[in-house]
Q: What sequence folds into this?
């Protein structure tokens, strides 16, 4: 196995409380870049928020100082019970070896429907059988590299090591761009930062993961896309007046 980068810090999930960040983990704000058709294309860094820990990040979704915790979880009686799978990506993954020169692996228990895995014409699943064409292969690789949740990975051969994007040790407060307007996205954790559960056990440490910051995910502490459905609906009603 390749040696993974090690983080000089960690994220601790407090019981029914915030994410406590310790160590040399910068916090930034990033916004989606989308096409004229609303397709997610990439991420743009907006600003630096913190150079390092310690700091606490909102998990209940009610803080008036997001992304930071302001103890609103006490007022809102937040239930932060963790229900995300405790086993590994390798144990859960599905392997798609239909293509040439690339093997695509996926674990949809991590998916939060950010939309980077496709566009208005196609998606990774549809493209994989056509990867004898290098341009198709390159497009799949680019889509996987930009997926924030780590739902997809790829290797060059069936037995090869996964190829991972070179992502910084960092937490990003994200802003997603929708047809209704910008919305608050999840916390995007990159660079193999350990995440400790509220019971003291560790989730599998991965190159990237998205953590719920709205408080309503059904697979806490991971994001499941609930924030998008709720905020888009609220914006739709507001826009309709």
A:
């Amino acid at each position: 196995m390749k040696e993974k980068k090690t983080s000089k810090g960690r994220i601790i999930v407090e019981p029914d409380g915030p994410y406590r960040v310790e160590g040399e983990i910068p916090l930034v704000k990033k916004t989606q870049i989308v096409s004229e058709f609303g397709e997610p294309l990439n991420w743009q860094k907006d600003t630096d928020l913190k150079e390092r820990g310690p700091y606490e990040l909102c998990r209940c979704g009610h803080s008036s100082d997001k992304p930071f915790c302001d103890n609103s979880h006490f007022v809102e009686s937040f239930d932060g019970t963790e229900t995300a799978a405790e086993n590994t990506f390798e144990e859960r993954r599905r392997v798609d070896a239909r293509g040439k020169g690339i093997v695509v692996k996926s674990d949809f228990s991590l998916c939060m429907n950010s939309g980077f895995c496709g566009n208005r014409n196609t998606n990774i699943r549809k493209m994989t059988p056509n990867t004898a064409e290098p341009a198709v292969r390159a497009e799949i690789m680019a889509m996987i590299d930009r997926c924030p949740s780590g739902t997809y990975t790829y290797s060059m051969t069936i037995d090869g090591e996964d190829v991972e994007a070179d992502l910084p040790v960092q937490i990003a407060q994200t802003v997603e761009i929708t047809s209704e307007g910008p919305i608050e996205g999840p916390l995007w954790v990159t660079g193999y930062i350990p995440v400790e559960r509220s019971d003291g056990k560790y989730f599998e440490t991965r190159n990237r993961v998205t953590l719920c910051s709205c408080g309503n995910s059904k697979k806490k502490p991971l994001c499941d896309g609930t924030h998008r459905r709720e905020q888009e609906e609220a914006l739709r009603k507001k826009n309709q007046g």
